[in-house]
Amino acid sequence: MVKKKLTGVLALLLTLMFLLSACTSSNAPTSSAASEGDNSTASESSSTEKAKLTMFHHTGGTGSIPDKFDYKNNDIINKIAELANVEFTEVTVPAYADLKTKFNLMMSSGSIPDIVIHNTIADMNQYGKDGAFLELSEIVANSAVLSEKYNEAMLEASKADDGNLYLLRSLPTEDGWHLLVRNDMLKAAGVTTIPSTLDEWVEAMKQVKQEFPDAIMYTSMGMTNYMQFLFKPFGCDNGWGWQYIDGKVANVFENPNLEKAVTFAQELLAEGLLDQEFATTTQQTYTDKRRNNNVLLVSASLASVPGSIDLLSMNNVQHVEFIPVQWPFEDPESLDPYQMYVPKKVVGNQGIAISSQTQSPDAAARVIEAFLSDEVLDLVTNGREGIEYTVENGEKVFDATAYSDSNWRNVYGVMFSYNPLDKIKVKGELSIAAMKETDEFKEAYKAEYEKAFDDLYNAEYGKIGYAPVAVAGTTMETLIPLSSEANSKTKEAIAEQQSILLKAIMGEISMDEFDQQRQSLVEKYQSITDEFNEKLPECKEKYGIE
Amino acid sequence: MSMSQAIAQKRTHKKLEKPPTAKLKFKPNRDIPVYLLILPAAFLLFVFHYIPIYGVIIAFQDFSPFKDVWGSDWVGFKHFEQFLTDPNFWRVFKNTIVINLMQIVIGFPIPIIFAIFLNEIWSNKFKKVVQTVSYLPHFISWVVAASIIVSALSPSSGILNKLIEALGGEPIYFLAKQEYFRMIIVLTAVWKELGMQSVYYIAALASIDTELYEAAKIDGAGKIKQAIHVTLPGLLPIISILLILKIGQMVTIGFEQIFLLYNPLVYDVGDVISTYTYRLGIEQTQYSLTTAIGLTQSIVNFILVFSANKLSRRVSGASLW
User: Fold this and answer.
1) Which of B261, B157, B153 is nearest to A216 (CA)?
2) Which CATH fold would you assign to the domain A177-341+435-543?
3) CA-based, 20 to 30 A from A248: which of A172, A273, A341, B190?
4) Does residue B42 belong to the interface with chain A, where contact is any CB pair within 8 Å?
5) pLDDT of A395 strictly over 50
6) Which residues of B touch A14 (CB under 8 A)?
7) What is the domain class of B3-7+83-315 according to CATH?
8) Does domain A47-173+346-382 have CATH number 2.40.128.270?
């Protein structure tokens, strides 16, 4: 009897425990950036009038951020909070690889932080049209800082296809995508002059492969990222998406050179000059390959040169000499300048928006102003006085190691598109200075790096104006806002393009089949091409594109 | 008396011995604690499986999280029409069915055979070791399992290709070849779940009356005959139930395994409904469209499980309800 009663009591307790735990809402901070051991009492008492805000932002792909880094409490975010007179109660910063998923899941929950920073403008505008974000025209008009930073063209480029301003895009940078080469490997293989034509590059790759049989000459993440070396020399951009040629927007699959590019990739693969496993390489394995193998060529943004130096230097790879070089073109005379050079940018690729649910739109606007402030630009570019640099005779003297160690500062340079050109150059020089090499080596490398940087800049920048559409890295940049339906279709189209290209390169389909498939893809997604071209005259007029 | 007659008699005998079922009277002191134990599970089932059902409404709307369920525009069967006329949907539908059929034909019998073999092992120690080793992969997440599989199948450093090379063959880029992909999915699922799935059969084997084996032995049945005439019939009810459940999942396939192993080269044969809806829902934020697909999947699965149950009851006498 006693046993039965005891069982009953235990069952009741168990039930209550389950029900209570199911119904109790957790007060634990949900932010990955929630500060541990944060002594908030003092700050709370001193900031009772400060607006409390929440924020979602991303790392911009910035590498080497320390584990358990506190995004909510550090010198730069605290400066932003101080400038805007706000207190950040929750800051969500997903891992960059999960950014898109986390962003869409957060948005689908319908519960949006006061400030949202993301890098997929078309998606943000779609959410804006659905009512997620405030229309910012009035906020910009009432803000001296924002009105000064954003001219009419920049505001136009930030607008959705319904004509509303749901976000502000980051300020433009000059950073483009280029070829980065391990000059030390070229030298070791006896290639003393940087190749300039495609044939010279292939020859150099063969020589390096002979010298370093286990090295990878070139790799990419399938067709998703870093694959430009296979297509750009033929004027085919990334091989997928849409491009601006001869005054029109065309599906890259319409480009008559695409077949040549695929054949080139097939040849590289057959000769062992293209990583045999490039098709299934993920972001992580791509980084691992670069860190652990001698990868000769890398397709990357100019801003990633310093990161490339740091990556290998931190892995104790000796005598690394990464330099950016110009794209080789198979037949430069036949190409449109928009197929070869880095276009000017009206705005950057990041977007900042204010939630329509916010209780403090003014405070949120002040945060945008703070992100755009000279103080934040200085902190991101130069670092903190006494830590990253000291001032001697009125000049900033940098501590190269401390500068590289606080790479996380980049995260807060969002409104400056993370990488103003000056910063890229300085950062590259400091990365070289932080290398564990002799002074003599570093001096020589620095001179080569600076020359390569300047040569590249002079050759590829400032040659063309704004591009209505362009592809950089993993995303399409467009000054033409597409309708919701077309925007959604572009993603499926790009996935199909990437699949067809991979199959053709790997020989899974014949060139005849490739030709057939690319023609049917062009037809299938003709409506997107048509929409681009219908809106093109307005875009040209707005931005003065020839 | 032949072996089959003996077994049949034994079964009949057992059936007769079964006590008649009497309607149990509800006794609060005895029954309430038991019901209370069920309550948390029932509560969770209700919260996570019944309450969300109202969400299927958004399949008939152009849903926006910011207009809420009742504020979004009603569009009737627009999304059903959209996916049913999309050639991509039929491609992923076909892949889902083909992979599931392969899993039934190849993957379903393997745990049964494994359990029967395991049952025949005399050494308890060895049996336990084999069982434990076979369970282990079940507890590895697909993320880890996928990286093991990718490494093992790597054309440059994978163990399988090293073996092929050692035997004089050329390395094969398994994960990039359409002809291998579905089989890789089926076999890796078998590897991961073999131990855990065999548990059901091992439990069922333990409940088979040992007298049946003795009777079979007396009649001169060897191991194979015992397995065919005693073990398999003993396993039939659990096989039927698991098969019915499996058929009830014919248009559904696990997401993680495919998502982590596929790549654009094998989309034609490896892209399934779950990866397709992931792209539409999470990457393209077409919530209504993916809900319409999900609802259709559930209806088809329901019809399949219902039909399979009916068929099983008619053919083998075993059924889920």
Assistant:
1) B157
2) D-Maltodextrin-Binding Protein; domain 2 (3.40.190)
3) A172
4) no
5) yes
6) 36-37, 40
7) mainly alpha
8) no
